[in-house]
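Regression report. Comparing outputs from two consecutive submissions.

Submission 1:
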Amino acid sequence: MLCGLAVDLSHAEIEALVIAVLNDVATGVERLGKNYYVTNQTRQVQLVINPFNYRLITANRVTE
């Protein structure tokens, strides 16, 4: 199940979170449809990234 992160982060904090998720060896990447889904179960975060301009679309919390 996915839900929004529901946190208020500054631009720098968002950037640090995205970099940490992308650099983590536990992160998996898959392309479903037109977007990339970058999931890290350890941090319980999924990033949805546009494949054409590589912009972050959403950051969701992964819950089980």
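Submission 2:
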Amino acid sequence: MTSATLQHPSFRLITPIWPVLLVLVVAASLWSGPFLTPANLAAVLQQGVITGIVALGMTIVLIGGEFDLSTGATVMMAAVMALLLGPSDGLSTLTAILLPILTGGVIGLINGLAVYRAGANSIVATIGMQFLVVGAVLALVRGQHVRADDIDPLFTALTTARLLGVPFAVYIFAGLVIGLAIVMSETVFGRHVYALGGDREAARRAGIGVTRTGVATYVISGMLAALAGVLIASLVGHVDPTAIRGYEFPALTAAVLGGTSLTGGVGRPADTAAAILVLAVITNVMTINNYQYPVQLLVQGVVLTAAVAFYSWQRSGSAS
């Protein structure tokens, strides 16, 4: 293994976000007594699951050098679709889980083809998809709340069931983090995504299927965003379509905070997960101490700005 390989982000065991998370947890434990209670720790873990799942998919697309700003609309679509399918028994529950996720994959496929086959700008293309999906969903439900009656307990168990006191949704998130970490660091596909984000033309000359690899990153992002929407439907049992949009920006925040480069080629799913926990800890501690929402936004903005400045300094230093 060459020294260049060892410097690749997928091979670095410790990145800056992990010491930040450790310091935050210690500080939160000292500053707020209730923080370390089992119930509160479970709440911290669960708090970031939905955004975290969306952020994982966005991280893969960003590593490939592109953006996916349609994820918030995909979350909304999947939550609405899951409830409209009426998960009232075993078969309908399975359908309400799988069909929205497959639809999210189709949305990702269209995004990927638009960007990698048609050459569209990823920001413009995915914002256009966002408008298309949101408009279609709101027209379908006529802007009304969506509710499912007689929901199968198996469907709600996706988010309400607990194992060792930890919500099952947290295990889903953890499994996705581990799975994607392995895919990105140990498989040919993962190495191709990093190469794609590092230098697309060089990747093409090296024989990498640029279109195939790039489209796959969007399919993954769309399916993960749809899974997040299904989990929202499972958790609340009813949704206001206009109230669950906008997940793309918190997800982008987590990805950037975790060190994923907006120019591609750098990032790790595990670091994005750590960033989600950082944001969850900050929000939790400020909620415990009765800080108002605007203050929470201010603190998160400061953290994100500091992270962007740090990573920019770090990369410019390593490049020089």
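Expected: both submissions complete independently.
Actual: both completed, but the second showed a warning that disappeared on reload.
Relevant detail on submission 2: The longest strand covers residues 146-147.
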